[in-house]
Amino acid sequence: MGEEELRSKGYPKTPDVKLKTPIIIKEHVVYWIDSKASFGDDYNYSVNYKEQFSGYISRYGPGLVIYWFGFIQELNGENDDVLLLCDFPENVVRLAIKE
User: Fold this and answer.
1) How many CB atoms lie under 10 A from the CB of residue 95?
2) Cα dist. 33→9, 30, 48 in Å?
3) What pLDDT, on the 0 to 100 scale, is given for residue 94?
4) Quick one: which of 69, 72, 64 has its CA closest to 89?
5) Distance between CA atoms of 9 and 97, rounded to whole angstroms?
6) Which of 16, 33, 70, 94 has the greatest number of CB atoms lying within 10 Å of its CB?
7) Within 10 Å of residue 81's Cβ, how many Cβ atoms?
8) How confident is the chain (99 residues) per 10-residue block, as mean pLDDT?
């Protein structure tokens, strides 16, 4: 589901994409994806985490953030619920969910 669809359903804080079926990227389960047209430095990450990512985690679970202009590598270990990348990965495993 895209951001507009989520908002139309009443979700207050929305990532760019909420996945209907989670995926695995680099051994991380991902339920949502947010894209940032910025560099992920200490300041941007902490502001983004406080104002957005923490809400996404509490509502949807762990997710992926793509910083278009890269990020400080040490930030990738700050929180196990947020995977940081600078582009969309090629090796994605889709989880099968039984209904």
Assistant:
1) 12
2) 18, 8, 13
3) 77
4) 64
5) 23
6) 33
7) 18
8) 70 85 92 96 96 95 97 92 93 73
Whether this prediction's pTM lies above 0.70 is answered by yes
The helix or strand, by DSSP H or E, that contains position 94, with its residue range, turns out to be strand 93-94
Q: What phi, psi does 35 have (nearest 5°)?
A: -115, 130
Amino acid (1-letter code) at residue 79: N
**According to the model, what pLDDT value does residue 68 have?**
96
Q: Are 38 and 52 in contact (CB under 8 A)?
A: no
Query: Distance between CA 91 and CA 77 in Å, rounded?
Result: 20
Both structure tokens of 51: 């104002």
Q: How far apart are CA 63 and CA 18, in angstroms?
A: 9
Alpha helices in the chain (DSSP H): 3-8, 42-48, 54-60
CA–centroid distance for 77 within its chain: 14
pLDDT of residue 8: 75
